[in-house]
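Researcher: We are triaging several targets before committing to wet-lab work. For this one, the compound of interest is adenosine-5'-triphosphate. I'm pasting the protein sequence and the ligand SMILES. What I need is the predicted three-dimensional arrangement of the protein with the ligand bound, expressed as C-alpha cells, so it can go straight into our comparison scripts without reformatting.
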Amino acid sequence: MSPDCIHQSLHASVPLLDIHEASVMRGDALILDRLSLSLAIGQHTAILGPNGSGKSTLIRLIARQLYPLARRDGAPVIRVFGRDRWNVSELRSLIGIVSPAVQLDYTSDSPLEVFDAVVSGFFSARGLGLDHEVTPSMRERARDALAQMEASHLIGRDMASLSTGEARRVLIARALVHAPRALLLDEPCAGLDPASRRRFLESLRQLARHGTTLLLVTHHVEEILPEIDHVLLLRDGKVLQEGNKETVLTDSAITAAFAMPVHVRRRGDYYSADVD
Ligand SMILES: Nc1ncnc2c1ncn2[C@@H]1O[C@H](COP(=O)(O)OP(=O)(O)OP(=O)(O)O)[C@@H](O)[C@H]1O
C-alpha cells in the first residue's frame, strides 16, 4: 500500500499507538515489565525517566527492532492504528523515528549530501542509488521538510560536516518527508547548548501545532514542550506514573523516579527540576 493510501485508510478514533502489557527480556534481565501505553492522534506525550529506566528499549520495541514476550492469551502486544502487523516502511510513513543511533548512521561512514539524505527517506535508504527514481513531488516534499526544520541552508553540505543540532534537524526533515502522523524523538536535545536547545524546541513546537503528534523521550523535565500534556514516568522498566503534566511533574513523583530529592518548578510554559 502506498503511504498516501495508508494515511487515507486510518481512522482518527483508533489509537495511534496501543501497547498492552509489553515485557522485554535482554539475556536474563526483564528490561520492560508489563508496560502499557495508549496514545491518541494529537496526544503529544513525553516519556521521562532516569538512565536505565527502559526508554530506549521502549523505542526499539515501537520501531520493531526488539520483540516483546508473547502474551499468554496470544493477544497482540503492540498495535499501531489498530493493526499489529506492518512492514517497516509502512510503519515509517506513520511514525517517524529519530534517535542518536539513527544520527550516528548518517553522520559517520561514507559521504552523504544533505538533500540526498532527506529525499532518500522516501526509499528508506541511506542515500540515493541508481534504481531510485526521485519525482519532482518528492523533491518538493523534501525541500518543504527541510524548510519546516529551518535547515534549507544546509543543502549541499556533507552530513558528516554538520553540527549535532544541524544533523538532527536534517534527520527530522528526512522523517517528515512521509508526513508521518507521529514523530518519536529519542533525547532530541542531547548535545545542544542552551540557546540551540531552546531554538530546537521551538521548531518542535511548530510541528506539534501543525498536526504531527510528538512522542518525546527525555531525562529532562526542561524539554517537555508546552504542547505536551501527557507524561509517562518510567523507572526500572515500569510505568511509575502516567497522566497530565500537572499531576505527574510533582516533587514527589520526580523524586521517586530519579531516586533523589528533586524540586520541580513551573517556569512560564515550561518546567524545570533542581536537585535539592
Ligand atoms: N542487550 C542488553 N542486555 C542486557 N541488558 C540490557 C541490554 N540492553 C539494555 N539493557 C539494560 O536495560 C536497562 C534499560 O536500558 P535502556 O537503554 O532501555 O534505558 P534508558 O532509559 O534508555 O537509559 P539511558 O537514559 O541511559 O539511555 C538498563 O539497565 C540496561 O543496562
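Researcher: Any quick observations?
Model: The chain has one domain: 3-275.
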